[in-house]
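Exercise 7 asks you to align residues with tokens for two separate proteins.
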Amino acid sequence: MPRISFTEIESLPDAKVRSSGSSAPNLEPARVTLRFRLTSADDRSLEALRYARRAMLREEWTRGVDEDEPSLEEAVFSAFDVVWSVPALARESGRAKLEELVTRANRALADMSAAGRVSRVAPRLRTP
């Protein structure tokens, strides 16, 4: 069972104010705000989440992001939730990135736990 998970909080598309009768083209695409509640067990879970997020950000900075791909850098993380305003057409892409983030964070948490078990079991070398 994963120790870190996100639960999506239902949200509506962001409201847009339009001026009636304007002949100016609408250049900004519609946006939605994704909201997710973070479920984690402890501080180690949060550290694993930070570790996974930093790794994904480094990958974005190295390879760049596609034109229609939202950047994880724009997501706002707290100890309890994530709020991320993305273009409406990139909603599923944003959800997929957060799913990948949780997968990586849970893997990092498992690795941290395994490393802790190994260090507790491994014999210590004695120095004279």
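Second protein for Exercise 7:
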Amino acid sequence: MSLEKQGQSRKASDGIQEEPCAICRALKQFQSDYIDMLSRRMPRSLCNFHTWLVAKVAEAGVAAEVLLRMLERALKDDSTGVDCSLCTWIAQEEDRELGEFVQILDIPEHLLRLRECGGICIPHARKLFDRVPNDLRDEIILALQRQAVELRRELVTLSRNAKAGIATHAGLLGRAAEYLVANRGLDIKR
């Protein structure tokens, strides 16, 4: 079930041309939308990461309600074996996004954007391999390689310019950081 926040929710297919990973970006947006709408869909349980995330970014009253429910459940019974509701929902959304991503690769303009811009991280590329024909696997591998080569070239130039005292473009560092973070994926447990 996709969470939509006044039509602002992003799908992987909306941003294939954007770097670094359209699927990671869609899942981060899904998670963010979920936290924003937490009062409408209360989790049964949360992992450590999502418990801290709720405590940090959710509206205080809603976060208190969620944490109170979890505390009461923990006092009543052993809830340690219960999976994180948000991790489960993110995994379901990831599966849906991967399926949609495969479908849009049949559209020539989306395949061209993948060839030119990348737009997929290594973990999601691996998950796509089981869903796409061999020729698309090669396209995904080439897109990943192009992204890394381009980023390396730009970082080498930036590093040399910074050492020489030449003004640098800070946006590149953000892109590099995002590429590296996205290549670790969201580490969704199945």
